[in-house]
Amino acid sequence: MKKRLSCVFLTLMLMFVNMAPAYAAEVSATKDFGEMLEMSDAEMAAFSADNNGSAVMAESGDSLDSALSPHDVSVHGAVYAMTVYPIAFVEGHSNYVYFSNVKRTFQFTSYYQNARASLTPSSTQKLLQDLRAALIRNGATYQLAGWRLEVTFLFEAPSPQSFEWSATGTNLPSSPTNTLSLKNHGTSLRATIPCGFGFPSGVDLNAERYNIEIGGLYTFITDRNTLSMNVSGMFSLNSNIANTGGYWAA
Amino acid sequence: MISSITHLSPVAQNCTKRAVGSSSKPVSFQESLQSSRAARDRVETRLSDGKLSAEELAVLSEKYDPDHMTQEQYDAFLDELESKGILSKEDKMLVKNPEMRFGEAFEPHGISPGRAYIEDDALMQLKSLQEYDGNASLFVKAMLAHESALAERTPPLKEDRQRMAALRVVSDVLKGLRI
Question: Where are the domains of chain B?
């Protein structure tokens, strides 16, 4: 009886250990480059099952067993950094204007699959004020228009395939889905996606929190399977949510 | 939030005479003459509107040394190119502000997806004129190289192409100052 109880206890322990990576969205960094969660095919499959398809088996008919790899394969999809720039429409230009030195960059040291960074109301207003000052210095007739968000993603797999992404924001329509090919860039790469976002309607831009986001489905091939996982970077303006897992780059 | 602002007055022109340089590589008089003529022709051809004559180039070369300029001199030089009609007001703004960038237009309360890119190589960081020891020719060439690298990464917008064209004009004029 005692032996049977020990077996049940051990089984429960093992189940818990196996499930842990599914929730371990980040690992604390110990190096400059940071560290990421290593996920094997089996873990990816478990992750898929535990997250309602946020990472899914792309090939129909594959059982979880068939996704098992004889050796661990390094697979990552995460946000490396996010940069936000205030933007304006300037008389004489159909395209929006921003300044490459009027920005805030949040550099992650723990890499999250679904990452978030926030600017406080005062930092948000300061950034808009910095853009105003830069435009005034250049004698421009302008109207503040919104934000440009650049999200740099890290992709790693035996064979990264594509990133199908779109952009969305508070009270803004979603952009159409775009596909970035990740083929022929090796097993580890960084990709940056920029996007312009107009100010949302129905929001007090001086005080109320609003979000802008770029994200999508990262598809890659492991030894035998094509798999996908959701990766996204969200930036909150006028937000007092504390930032974790990184730092504001100079 | 629309704000109407007048242009700032140009900075005071604090010009110095160009230092006379000496070539370390000996060339024959004939070679030198042919080289000078070819370069001058090239500058005059590039400045297709003919707005900067050989005499004007000579006057500019008395005032500005392309190898040694302070930021104030460089700004005054660009102001002078604008006043002579070589650069438009817009051209000058783009050349003077390499950090001023553009993104594709969008409707109010809309989203404009930009061009995604793979970061194969880190872009060279832009340096200031001071970091090039006042060598305006090098500084402008570096800006052109930076713009070219950006254009390879993502297709350039209208303003990016205008900036590159304006930088080439400035580079040619600086070359012309050496003749």
Answer: 29-101+126-177
Interface touch A141/B157, C-beta < 8 Å = no
Taking CA–CA distances from A180, the nearest residue in chain B reads B116
Which chain B residues touch A199 with a CB distance below 8 Å?
A: 109
Name which of A95, A140, A148 is nearest B105 (Cβ-Cβ).
A95
Q: How distant is the Cα of B88 from the closest Cα of chain A, in angstroms?
A: 13
Residue A182 dihedral angles phi and psi, to the nearest 5°: -110, 10
Strands B111-113 and A188-198: antiparallel
Predicted model pTM: 0.73
- The reply to whether ipTM tops 0.85 is no
- In CATH, what number does A76-249 get? 2.60.40
Looking at the complex, report in whole angstroms how far the Cα of residue A192 sits from the nearest Cα belonging to chain B: 6
- Of residues B12 and B34, more confidence is placed in B34
Average pLDDT by stretches of 10, chain A with 250 residues: 52 45 35 42 44 38 35 82 97 93 97 97 97 92 96 96 98 96 94 97 95 98 93 98 94
Helix (H, G, I), strand (E, B) or coil at B65: strand
Chain B residue numbers with beta carbons less than 8 Å from the beta carbon of A130 are none
Q: Where are the domains of chain A?
A: 76-249
With an 8 Å Cβ cutoff, are B158 and A94 in contact?
Answer: yes
Give the C-alpha distances (Å, rounded to integers) separating B18 from B15, B60, B65, B170.
9, 10, 5, 17
